[in-house]
Design a protein that fits this description.
The chain has 98 residues and is of the alpha/beta class. The chain has one domain. It has two helices and six strands, in the order βαββββαβ. The protein has a six-stranded mixed sheet, with helices on one face. The longest helix has 8 residues. The termini are far apart.
Length: 98
């Protein structure tokens, strides 16, 4: 695996809804898997990309969970392009611009 890509940090748990998102982003840069909230009352799958200082906050919401991912070394445009692929057609994608 190329340096600067793949999984960052030591937290390894990832929800079923966030797994394909994390794997797609890990091909572009480093991804840190963050906290998981349960009992979320969402009706659809969604992904929200928010640029922060030094990283992107990517929140993946499913019908029962919400997980935060932090992506390093990836631009908003790169993340958006990766998550607009056909395998993510069931997710609603929200991109917050700077």
């Amino acid at each position: 695996m190329a340096k600067g890509r793949g999984r960052a940090g030591t937290h390894t748990t990832v929800t079923d809804a966030a797994r394909p998102v994390a794997e797609a982003l890990e091909k572009l840069g480093r991804v840190s898997r963050g906290k998981i909230d349960a009992r979320i009352g969402a009706k659809t799958f969604s992904i929200k990309i928010t640029p922060l200082d030094g990283c992107l906050l990517v929140v993946v919401v499913s019908k029962g969970t919400r997980q935060e991912l932090r992506a390093y070394g990836i631009s908003v445009a790169q993340a958006e392009q990766a998550l607009r692929q056909p395998e993510f057609a069931s997710y609603h994608l929200n991109v917050a611009r700077e």
